[in-house]
Structure formats: C-alpha cells, structure tokens
Amino acid sequence: MRFAVLHHDHLFAHWDLLLEAPDGCWTWRLLDSPDKAFVLRAERIANHRPFYLDYEGPVSGNRGSVFQSDAGAWVWITATDSRVMGWATGRHWCGRIVLSADSAGSWLLTYQPVEKKGEEPVEHRPSE
C-alpha cells in the first residue's frame, strides 16, 4: 500500500493525506503544515481515487492544483471509524501515523518518527 501528502491550493492552502486502501484512498484534509508539527488538525473528507497518489497538476472543475510534498509506502496497523494507525515510509515522513477522532468528529493526526532503524510493522488492512 502507499500514501501521499498533496499540497492543495483550492479554497485555502492545505494538504491532503491519502492512504491507499482496497476501496480507494482514505483521505484527510490537513489544516496544519506537515513540515512543521508532529500533531496536526485534520478533517476526514471523501475517499480519493488512487490516481492522485502519483498526480501533480490542476484538478478538474477549477478545484485548484495539487503538488506532492511526500509519498511512499504505507502499512496499515489498525483502522476503525474513529482511529487509523499505520507506518509511513516516505521522503520526509518515516514513522507511525495515528489519526483519531473525538466524539464530535474532530480529527487529530499524530506523527511519531521512527526512533530505531530496522523496526518492522505488521500489516493489517482496513476492512472493506
């Protein structure tokens, strides 16, 4: 599986996090720069097509442009309606990603960089 972080300039500058899954890419809008923080505010948005994992350029329907800020391998650890955890190995992110929602539906992403080389996660795919 793969992940991508796309800088998107539509409506306001933000980043879209795409996590490849059997039913498309689970997607969150990141409201804080993934380059500057380890805890980011996020909004769950509609799944995106896997096409966007590799795409850079204009988005159809005058919805701005996207540019890849990171991408790489994604390993699912757990996935529920309110919590997602996995390992990202990309150009910038290399570590555990945890997305969690509170009872009001607000999401937070926590990035925990790998502290030891060679640490291997076990893959658990999200249910379809």
Could you walk me through the main structural features you see in this protein, from its secondary elements to its overall organization?
There is one protein chain. With 128 residues, the chain is an all-beta fold. The chain has one domain. Helix content is 0%, strand content 56%. It has no helices and 9 strands. The protein has strands spanning 2-8, 14-21, 24-30, 39-48, 57-58, 65-79, 83-90, 94-101, 107-113. The chain has an 8-stranded antiparallel barrel with strand order 1-2-3-4-9-8-7-6.
Largest sheet: 8 strands, antiparallel, barrel
Uncertain residue ranges: none
Number of helices: 0
Report strand order across the widest sheet: 1-2-3-4-9-8-7-6
Mean pLDDT across residues: 87
Radius of gyration: 14 Å
Helix content: under 10%
Structural class: mainly beta
Order of helices and strands: EEEEEEEEE
Gross morphology: globular
- Measure the end-to-end span: 15 Å
Taken together, the total number of domains comes to 1
How many beta-strand runs?
9
Q: State which percent range the strand residues make up.
A: over 45%
